[in-house]
Design goal:
The chain is mainly alpha-helical. It contains 24 helices and no strands. Helix 4 (about 70-85) runs antiparallel to helix 5 (about 90-105) and helix 15 packs antiparallel against helix 16. The protein is rod-shaped and about 190 Å long.
Length: about 550
Amino acid sequence: MRHNDTLRLSLAIFFLAMAFANASAVDKGDVSAVIKDLNRTIEERETYQREKLWRISNIQDELEKSKGKPNEFNVCYQLFNEYKCFQYDSAYHYARLLESISNVSGKQSEIAKAKTALFFCFKSVGFFNEATEIIRDFNTEGIGDEELAQFYLLCAQTYQNLSSYVNGSADLCSIYDGKKMDYYNLVISHTAPNSYLHEFIALEIGLIHNYSDSLAIDGRKRLISSFSLDDHEKAVQYSILGAAYNSLNMMDDATYYRAISAINDIRSCTHETTSAKVMAEYMYNRHDIESAHIYIQQALYDANFYNSRLRKAEINSVLPEIESSRYKWSNSQRIIFLTAGLFILALLILTFLLFSKLRKRNKILAVTHSKLVASTNIITSTNDAISKANAKLKEANEIKDQYIIQSLYGNSLFVNEIEEQSLLARRKITARQYDEAKALLYNFGTKKERERIYASFDSVFMKLFPNFIEEFNSLFDEEDWIQLDSNGALPMEVRIFALMRLGIDNPAKVAEYLNISVNTIYVYKTKVKSKSIVPKEDFDSRIMSIPKP
């Protein structure tokens, strides 16, 4: 009566949870993130395995110290628990050692634990004959509820595996499913309400009696969230949750939870597992062949490490198809890369040919450009020379015009004055005033006329070169600077260089114009250059470079 009440209470709790909970789908971003986490965990599996082996090594040391002592069985049982999902051969070795120790001690509880350990080993690798023999011969007298619950759970799992193995044979499936339900009820009767194992099996029974997708998903999520599970227990529950989503064809959710299960398998160093294999199938169906290869290799690694014949058989049923597809995919990738490589090579050859052709053309263009640059430089030099010649011609014309006008004006004055003086002299001669006529001839005005000519020259020159004095003085220290007199007349030595700037550099012509000797010209020039701050050989060129505004 107590068993039935407990079962009804557990089912009522799960159905109530189903009414208030909703299965929530995950988005593609969550799936991508958990797959990355799984790939990273696979890369780090050696780290978790080293920690596991270190822990096993410590227990083995303790077992050596415990030989023949009362705690030998318990330490050996710890080692079996470490190995039971980690490595079959070692788990079987310690299960047999437990059997040997329990036979010596004769304790019924230790004999039952040893039998359960052997039972687990046989069930894990598919030795169902040996497993069912243990079920038939198992003595339950004097065994505690916890040990019995674990034993009955193994019995239920064994018959579930047998039912799956004979799938298609309805009568055998019915027999094995009935035995599974019987042992589930025995687990319920030997576990405390609200304990993890009790709630787990209650959910399984509820799904068998009245399956619904909501209960399969929401009840499983409630179970996961209600208890503090270790990594192995999480792996089991998330694997079942993924299977529930798979039955609804909600593949993103199924992939998400199967990936979490595989992660917890690796972290708990569980090699007796199916999640990696299922993940390989999911990725294969998604046409992600590379990921499928990674996960099927992880599943094969687990099966080989654990030495599970059952898991190897399961993996070998899908491994060839995945590896064949990967080979085809790799081969197609090689063909694509080869085609791309040939295409790139053709482009490189074409580029090289075009480059060579362009290089030849560039050489021709470079030669043509050099010729054009040379011609341009010649034209530029010619233009500069013409510009300078035009500037000089313009300057000379302007100087010529100014001096022609001034000369005409000065000559006109001079002729008028000569005519006036000649007329006056003739009158004096006619009047027989010979002495006065003679005096007029002596004072004919040549000196005055020469002074007027100099003044006229200076005036015109300063109009043409108003900056001449400033530029001229820049060639001397300040104490040697020249100044114009009050009438604006140039000093004689400066007038010599003014004539030079106008282009009159013949000493004989300069001497004739200034009414002085050639030697005096040289004396003046030497005296001026000796005071200059520029080299004597550069002085004349500096004078000629004084610009005309």
